[in-house]
C-alpha cells in the first residue's frame, strides 16, 4: 500500500489555475508532495505546491518530462498534450483521467459521437470540418436556424459556443472543425459530478442547477441541491453514472445536462476534472470535490458526497469596462453576510468576464441562500484600480 | 479601506507550525500576501506562504526585522519576543493580539493575577520564584497535597504542568518561577473561542468539551457542541466574553475552563490564537477559526460561528516507542468512514506524543460522531518506518 502522506510519493498536476489551486488545498492538508506545471509565472498554483515547473501544457516534451518526475499525473484543464500522456501511460506511469478519456473529450465532435455510440441521450448534431460547410448545409436545407455552433477544440468558458439565428452570426467564427447542435428549449441546466477510483468505487454528488447569464454564456448561480423533482434528479444521476461507466473514468467526471420541457435529460458535455459547478462542495458537502478528486486518483476510499447544508455559488468575473490590477469592490460588505465566503483565485489582472474567483453562500434553507446570493451578486464588483 | 486581496498588503505570521499552516488555508483562499517566520527549514508553513523567513522567534532583532517587512503582524505561538512586538507597536505597526495581551498571557503567574484582578473566576493559586520555595510552603503548612504545579513560562502541550501528590513528584521539575494551583475536582474541561476584531465586533463559538488522556495530559477528543446543560454553556460563554473584554483582545482568544462538581466555571488558561479545540471548526462550523482569526486581525467583519453539523476532533500524536520518518498506519481505513477527514501537519519526523496531525469526524448526530471517533482513534496509528 503506497504511503502518500509525508513521504517520497509525488503527485503531478498539469495546469496551475484555480482548479489546481483548490486541489492544493487538499494536498496541503494531507501533506502529499505535489508538483505543478503551468506556462505562467503568475499561476495561482505557484504558491502551495512543492515544486513549480514552467512549461507549455500543449508541448509534448514539456508534458512528457514533467510526467517523468512524478508518480501519479493528473490535470486541471483539458488543453494538454494528450500524446505525451499516452506515451507516459505506455511506460507504466499512472495518468488519471486516462489519455483515452481526455482524447475523446478534448474534441467536442468525438465527444458527441461517443455519447451516440454508447446510447447516451444528447441533442442531435452534425460534424463539420469547416464553418463554410455549415453555409452549404443551410443552403441545401440540411440545417435550419436556430442552432448551436461549437468549436470542436479549445473552446472554454463561453468561448467557442454560439447560438446561430441567422447567417451573419457565422461571421468571425473560427473557421475550423466544429459541430452544430439542435437548440433545445430546456427548463434547467443541471450537472452531476461523479467520482470513481481505480478500484471502481463510485459516488455521485447531488444534482446541481446552473442559472446562466444570457449574453456571456457563463454561469450566474450554481444551486445545490437543484430545485427539481426527485424523479428528474434520479434520471440525471443515472445518466451521469452511465456516462462515467462508458468512459471507465478515474477521478472526477462532471456531467452537464439539459432538462427538456418534457423532463427528459440530455447530456450537453462533460469535464474530466473538478468543475465550476462543484466549488460549493468545499463548504456545503461532507467531502469537497477537490479532496474527492485526490482520493479518487490515488485509489483512496471515496468520501461521503452528501451535503451538510444547502449551497449556492456565484462566480466572480471581471466587470465590463475594467482591465488592470484587480480590486474587489465591496468585498467587506459581503463578508458581513451569514454563510458567505469569497474565494479569490489570485489572478492579479482583471479583464471583462475573466473568472477571478467565486463566492459560496451556504444556509440550511436553500431559499434563504438564494436570496443572500442575489444580494452578494449585486454588491461585490470585480474592477480595476 | 485597505485592499487586502490580491494587493500589496502583507500579513506576517510569527511561527510556522500547524496553526500557521491552517491560517495559510485562509490567506491562500483570499489571496492575501503572507510572510512567515520560523527557525526550522521544515516548518509546515514553508509551502503556501509568499515568503518564508528563517529566524528565531525569541530573538529581538529577528522578530523586529520581520515585523518591519509586513503591514499587520500576528503569531501562532506564545513564545515570541514580546519586547520586539512592543517596539513595533510604538512605531505604529499593527500587532494583533497586542504585546500587552501576550505579555500577560506568556507568564502563567501574571495570567492568574490578571484573572484575580478582573474578578474572573479561577482556582486559588500561589506564585513561587523557585520550586524550592514550594517545599518550604509544604513544610510550614501553607500548601497541601495534592496540587497542580505549572511552570510560569514556556510550558506547552502537557509539558510544564504536573499534578503533585507527594514530595518526590517535585524531583526533576524545572527549578524556576512557577505557580501552584488547587487541584479542583471537575466534571468537564470546556473551551470557548472568542473572536473580536479591532472595531470591537465580537462572536463566540459554541462551547466545546475536551476529554483528556490521563498520563500524557493531552486532549483525546474535542467534542462540539459540549454535552452539557444550556445553563452551564451560557455561564462558560459569559465568562469567556468577560475574559475577552478584560484583555480588550483582537483576534481569537481560546478560553479553557473547568466545570466543577457544583457546575461552577473556573478559567484554567487562555491562548490568544487559534486553538486545538477549534480545529473541528474547519469542517463543522460556518466559519473556520483560522478564517475567523484572519478576519479579526484585519478588522474585516466576523463570520458566522454557528455549527453546520456536530464535530469531533481526535489528535494524531506519535505513538510511544516510535521515532523517525513518519508513517500513518491504517490511514486508508479511516478514509472509508463517513464524515472523517485527516489533517497531516507535514512534520517529517515522529516521536512519542508529538502532535503530527488531527482527524475530524463530523455528523449530524453527535453521538454517532463520537462512536466513529473512537473507531478512528483505535484504527490509525502514527508510527515510524
Notable features of this structure?
homodimer, about 375 residues, alpha+beta, Rossmann fold, Dna Ligase, domain 1, D-amino Acid Aminotransferase, Chain A, domain 1, 3 domains, nine-stranded antiparallel sheet, five-stranded parallel sheet, 11 helices, about 30% helix, globular
Notes on the structure:
Two copies of one chain form a homodimer. Chain A has three domains: 10-95, Rossmann fold; 124-182, Dna Ligase, domain 1, CATH 3.30.1490; 186-384, D-amino Acid Aminotransferase, Chain A, domain 1 (2-Layer Sandwich), CATH 3.30.470.20. Chain A has 385 residues and is of the alpha+beta class. In chain A, the strands form four sheets. In chain A, strands 10, 11, 12, 13, 14, 15, 16, 18 and 20 form a nine-stranded antiparallel β-sheet that branches. The model of chain A has no long low-confidence stretch (mean pLDDT 95). Chain A is built from eleven helices and 21 strands. Chain A is globular and about 65 Å long. The interface between A and B is large, with 45 and 45 residues.
Give the CATH level 1 class of the largest domain in chain A: Alpha Beta
Say which CATH homologous superfamily of the largest domain in chain A is assigned: ATP-grasp fold, B domain
Kindly state the percentage of residues in helix of chain A.
25-40%
Major sheet of chain A, described briefly?
9 strands, antiparallel
Uncertain segments of chain A: none
Oligomer status: homodimer
Fill in the CATH topology of the largest domain in chain A.
Answer: D-amino Acid Aminotransferase, Chain A, domain 1
Number of domains of chain A: 3
How does CATH name the architecture of the largest domain in chain A? 2-Layer Sandwich
Q: Work out the radius of gyration of chain A.
A: 21 Å
Structural class of chain A: alpha+beta
Residue share in β-strands of chain A = 25-35%
Distance between the termini of chain A: 52 Å
Count of helical stretches of chain A:
11
